[in-house]
Amino acid sequence: GENVEQHPSTLSVQEGDSAVIKCTYSDSASNYFPWYKQELGKRPQLIIDIRSNVGEKKDQRIAVTLNKTAKHFSLHITETQPEDSAVYFCAASNRGGGADGLTFGKGTHLIIQP
Amino acid sequence: DTAVSQTPKYLVTQMGNDKSIKCEQNLGHDTMYWYKQDSKKFLKIMFSYNNKELIINETVPNRFSPKSPDKAHLNLHINSLELGDSAVYFCASSPQGGALGETQYFGPGTRLLVL
Q1: What letters, b where the CB count within 10 A reaches 16 and e where it falls short, cover B32-57?
Q2: CB of A29 less than 8 A from some CB of B
Q3: Which chain B residues are Cβ-neighbours of A95 within 8 angstroms?
Q4: pLDDT at residue B75 tops 90
Q5: Are strands B110-114 and B10-13 parallel, antiparallel or unpaired?
Q6: CB contact A53 to B (< 8 Å)
Q7: CA-CA-CA-CA torsion for A3, B58, B27, B89, nearest 10 degrees?
Q8: Average pLDDT value for residue range B33-47
Q9: At the N or C end, where does chain A have fewer CB atoms within 10 A?
């Protein structure tokens, strides 16, 4: 089955600086890579996703890159703000022939220092 | 923000009891899921289900069983609860179809504490 590794487990950056979180996956058949943000006591919320037919996607201060050959993908947050503080999860999915759940990384606790 | 809803929000119960968690989605999605988030915040798929197939994560004990009365609901029934079942359980849903992945929308979670 799929295995997703995520690093770092904790990331502390100064407000206004950039943050980068990296993930690797094991199953070359995986074709969908979402990123979720989870605030304390809340549900995971999708912030951006990328599919295997593109290498990069950007949405305002958030961008994701995908390297299929190396089987890794990264989340980039620029101009970080206090409200960016949360736990971020990467995930991978292989739709295959049926309904397939997401395999998550273990999460990165992002701390934005004022 | 009630596209995917779960009840109850909190559930405290004794070891050995049987309990159910309900999930409903009003998005018209065909596929629903249950995830478990443990005390270390690790999210793991338990089941995925649409009107055609149930896919069970092989690591899930058979004390856990999903029940779907219709495509808008996927309830989770747990028999003989154990201390290790304490976790947050999230329901999610996604549209059916699409060869390149589908966005999953999560419910608010049910915090289960087994004493």
Answers
A1: bbbbbbeeeeebbbbbbbbeeeebeb
A2: no
A3: 98-102
A4: yes
A5: parallel
A6: yes
A7: -90
A8: 93
A9: C
Q: Note whether B11 and B110 are within 8 A (CB).
A: yes
Mutate to test the interface with A, among B2, B38, B104, B105 (most CBs of A within 10 A): B104
The rounded distance, in Å, linking the Cα atoms of A61 and A75 is 11
Of the pLDDT bands very low, low, confident and very high (cuts 50, 70, 90), residue B97 is very low
Amino acid at A35: W
Distance CA(B89)–CA(B111), nearest Å, equals 7
Q: Is B99 on the interface with A (CB under 8 A)?
A: yes
- Surface of B (30-69) touching A: CB under 8 A: 31, 33, 35, 40-50, 52-53, 55, 57
- Residues in chain A where the model's pLDDT stays below 70: 95-100
More confident site: B55 or B16: B16
H/E run at residue B93: strand B87-94
Mutate to test the interface with A, among B25, B43, B93 (most CBs of A within 10 A): B43
Task: Please report the number of interchain residue pairs, chain A to chain B, with beta-carbon separation below 8 angstroms.
Answer: 77
If pLDDT is split at 50, 70 and 90, which confidence band does B98 have? very low
B10 contact A CB<8A: no
Tens digits of residue pLDDT in A32-51: 899 999 999 999 999 999 98
